[in-house]
Amino acid sequence: MSGIFEYNGGSIVGMKGKNCIAVACDRRFGQQMSTITTNYQKVFKIQDNILLALSGLNTDIHTFYALMEKEINLYNLKENRKMKPTTFANLVASALYERRFGPFFVTPIVAGLENGKPILATYDSIGCKSDLDDFQVGGTGGNYIYGACEAFFKPDMSPEELEEVIGQSLVSGCDRDALSGWGGVVYVLTEQKITVKILKTKQT
Amino acid sequence: MQYLDNYLQFKGGYDYTNVKRNELMKAQGFKEMPFTKTGTTIVGVLFDGGVVMAADTRATAGATVADKNCEKLHVLAPNIWAAGAGTAADLHHQCAHFNAKLKLQRLNLNRQSRVNEVITKLTSKLFPYRGHIGVALIIGGIDSNGPQLASVSPYGNYVYHPFQSMGSGSLAALGILEAKFQDGLTKQQAIDLAIEAIEAGIFHDMGSGSNVDVVAITKDGADYKRNIRSYNAKSYQKQIPYHFPVNNTPALKKYQFDIEKQELTEVGQEMEIIE
Fold this sequence. Notes:
The structure holds 2 protein chains of 2 kinds.
Chain A: E1 11-16, E2 21-26, E3 29-31, E4 34-37, E5 43-47, E6 50-56, H1 58-79, H2 85-98, E7 106-114, E8 117-123, E9 129-130, E10 135-139, H3 142-152, H4 159-175, E11 184-189, E12 193-199
Antiparallel strand pairs in A: 1-2, 1-10, 2-11, 3-4, 5-6, 6-7, 7-8, 8-9, 11-12
Helix pairs in contact in A: 3-4
Chain B: H1 2-10, H2 19-27, E1 42-47, E2 50-56, E3 59-61, E4 64-67, E5 73-77, E6 80-86, H3 88-109, H4 115-126, E7 135-143, E8 146-152, E9 158-160, E10 163-166, H5 170-180, H6 187-204, E11 211-218, E12 221-230, E13 251-258, E14 263-267
Antiparallel strand pairs in B: 1-2, 1-10, 2-11, 3-4, 5-6, 6-7, 7-8, 8-9, 11-12, 13-14
Helix pairs in contact in B: 5-6
Main location (chain A): cytoplasm
Subunit structure (chain A): Component of the proteasome complex.
Keywords (chain A): Cytoplasm, Nucleus, Proteasome
């Protein structure tokens, strides 16, 4: 038996650009060494300007996403307005810390655009928010993607270039991780639109 | 029983619903991922008229650096700061919680917060949790009783001393402090001493690194210098950065969601999948 975070596998990465932000994830859903499906969704649209990427134990990905969906829907109904990305980032941290002694086994990445400014936050499984870096990773292939990001990343990239760079970083990183891969999806968020690109990768 | 749902929603505190499940998983042999710890070297130095606190900026998750430039100096009150070592999530949330608690109290009582009350509140909170809330803090501030410096351990123990160091790099820092500390330092001398102590931690301890943050608290206010020293800037930059031409990465499908029109359309970039 390996770690709880290695049971299902999967990797996510987020990167800031110039007035845009991108998240990418792989598509594998496995049970230890078996692959169950290769089209598992790990990035969820919380709001038109907020994306939530989750990695870790897939059952907790599902549960945590449902919890955040509930929170934002209640917020919209009660406050009759949209939630700001920085507020959502704090909400995720609080929701994770609330379960400090019985945590969700997820490492989320929150990506959003607030007044054109990209907001990127990552957390450990108990809610330590880290939002000062220009790129963040999560999941079993995270460390390998870090290496690719450090090499490929440039500040203030355009949405098109950002899409390329994050895609290449994800694919390079996942190639070195046995538990991630089987495709990749890149989401680029700008003020006007969200583009979703399903990458063609080595199917191994 | 709807009132129960509402009550439970607002009761605050920790949620223990996942504990049983997690214990079962651990019994089956699964290992948890390590929480982000702050590794850390933090120091506090008392001087004539105030207190100086300094910290490094590295956060680690196991052996990986999770954050190269995190903030370990937290504001608890305008005249009281805390430097934290231990589990990063606990530090961040507990300090935010105490900040809010003290602010409410100041609004209610119209009095400045005091260091000894912060220590009392902290230790009262930490002791019942038997060390499971992993915060090791150095609390420094100036109030009506003068400048004070204390350290609080995760188990609820506290110590007042003119110089403190905590974290994995505390022994390295303590060497510098024990050798060079004197009573009656000036502000600049205290800052230099604190920076030197953190440097020792950064270079000799694996869990500490990156930059040095310093805050000097006097009765005129808190002077916070973020990244006053930087040692680990990237020494090598690729001369010609990687340039990826647009639409270079092959894609199976590409969709576009227009936010204003709330429409999802497929963008034509289909590639043939060669079997």
